[in-house]
């Protein structure tokens, strides 16, 4: 991701300079199977190599762990990784040398499991990275799960202006519980002085009813509602479905970090990013709203498809995401709303002698 690259470079440089490990252990949490995990690995290798050249030190060995849920397509991730390595070697050969000496030696392994559980032995990781994953909750609050008898968020799939405040509180409490658990788990796994760089969808607006994710998922909820009206989906199916996602504000994130007492916040910021990942224009105008609608629908379908297929059935997917693309196009004609993305860099507090004994 382009926007957090300078921060990634800074954190990797800081971690290496401060800890000088012979083997630097780095983990990407929620890596998925797309190209971003590969970009991340390449960036860390490049930045570490640059640090070593500048300081005339021998490079450390880099051990990467790419983590995601067990259902993630690790095969395709590692196949892309092998192709990319082959290409890098070929380029190096064409330029008259191998990669040895110019790039730190590195090893990459997959790590299936939820990041809401322990993933590593104590004090073994120097740097955790996670991008676009931590807005996923560990689970829906119990009262909002599909088997619950009463449907508290009727007609919606996420928080909208008609969501009862009690439901909003449940989402908020689940986020606080999950994020605190995540911070505690990682703090046991980080070496003293290790760091984390976390990037996830959030909201800039103080009001949780008008957060940036409300629009994007609200339009998807409207697409489901239209299928209910036409009898393609039972109303009960819609009423019993909620997304296990929450977009926090910077204040909410900061409050949980402070509550944990485990980290110093090096830096926290919010930036905006266009809904359409192929639209890199900066203004408030969308050139081709129809194409942008299709692009946004494709991206969201890639992420949400398993969830929707499981609850509503595969048969609705094509129709649902076509309607969603139209809803997005119409919305973008009126207003170019954007995602709010929070990037936070955290340094684990140095362990006291007493803590190190436990
Ligand atoms: C939108 S993708 C982000 C992929 C990639 N990091 C990127 O920046 O493009 C979110 C990923 O987080 C993963 N994820 C969600 N909850 C998780 C959890 N509890 N543990 C591990 N991975 C999780 C999902 O499976 C998905 O692959």
TrEMBL record:
* Keyword Cell inner membrane attributed: no
Do you know which Gene3D superfamilies this protein is assigned to? Methyltransferase, alpha-helical capping domain (1.10.1200.270), Vaccinia Virus protein VP39 (3.40.50.150)
Q: Which top-level group of life is the source organism from?
A: Eukaryota
- Offer an example of a GO molecular function term for this protein: metal ion binding
Query: What Pfam family is a match for this entry?
Result: Methyltransf_7
SUPFAM superfamilies, per database record: S-adenosyl-L-methionine-dependent methyltransferases (SSF53335)
Q: Which UniProt keywords apply?
A: Magnesium, Metal-binding
**InterPro entries in the record:** MeTrfase_7, MeTrfase_capping, SAM-dependent_MTases_sf
Query: Which family does the record claim for this protein?
Result: Belongs to the methyltransferase superfamily. Type-7 methyltransferase family. SABATH subfamily.
Under which name does UniProt file this protein? Answer: Uncharacterized protein
Q: Which organism is it from?
A: Panicum miliaceum
């Amino acid at each position: 991701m382009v926007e957090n690259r300078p921060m990634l470079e800074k954190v990797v440089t800081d971690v290496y300079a401060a800890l000088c490990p012979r083997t630097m252990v780095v983990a990407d949490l929620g890596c998925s199977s797309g190209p971003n995990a590969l970009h991340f690995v390449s960036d860390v290798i490049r930045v570490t190599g640059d640090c070593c050249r500048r300081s005339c030190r021998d490079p450390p060995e880099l051990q990467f762990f790419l983590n995601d849920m067990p259902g993630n397509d690790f095969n395709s991730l590692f196949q892309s990784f092998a192709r990319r390595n082959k290409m890098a070697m070929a380029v190096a050969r064409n330029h008259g040398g191998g990669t040895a000496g110019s790039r730190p030696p590195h090893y990459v392994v997959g790590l299936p499991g939820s990041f809401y559980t322990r993933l590593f032995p104590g004090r073994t990781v120097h740097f955790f990275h996670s991008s676009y994953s931590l807005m996923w909750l560990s689970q829906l609050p119990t009262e909002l799960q599909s088997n619950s008898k009463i449907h508290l968020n009727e007609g919606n799939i996420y928080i909208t202006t008609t969501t009862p405040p009690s439901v909003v509180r449940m989402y908020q409490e689940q986020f606080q519980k999950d994020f605190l658990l995540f911070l505690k788990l990682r703090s046991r796994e980080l070496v003293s002085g290790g760091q984390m760089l976390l990037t996830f969808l959030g909201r800039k607006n103080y009001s949780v009813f008008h957060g940036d994710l409300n629009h994007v998922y609200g339009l998807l909820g409207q697409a489901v509602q239209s299928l209910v009206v036409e009898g393609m989906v039972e109303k009960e199916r819609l009423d019993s479905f909620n997304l296990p996602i929450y977009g926090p504000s910077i204040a909410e994130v900061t409050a949980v970090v402070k509550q944990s007492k485990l980290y110093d916040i090096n830096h926290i910021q919010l930036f905006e990013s266009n809904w359409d990942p192929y639209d890199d224009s900066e203004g408030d105008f969308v050139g081709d709203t129809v194409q942008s609608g299709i692009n946004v629908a494709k991206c969201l379908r890639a992420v949400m498809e398993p969830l929707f297929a499981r609850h509503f059935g595969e048969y609705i997917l094509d129709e649902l995401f076509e309607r969603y693309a139209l809803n997005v196009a119409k919305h973008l004609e009126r207003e170019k709303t954007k995602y709010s993305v929070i990037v936070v860099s955290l340094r684990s507090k140095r362990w006291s002698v007493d803590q190190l004994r436990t």
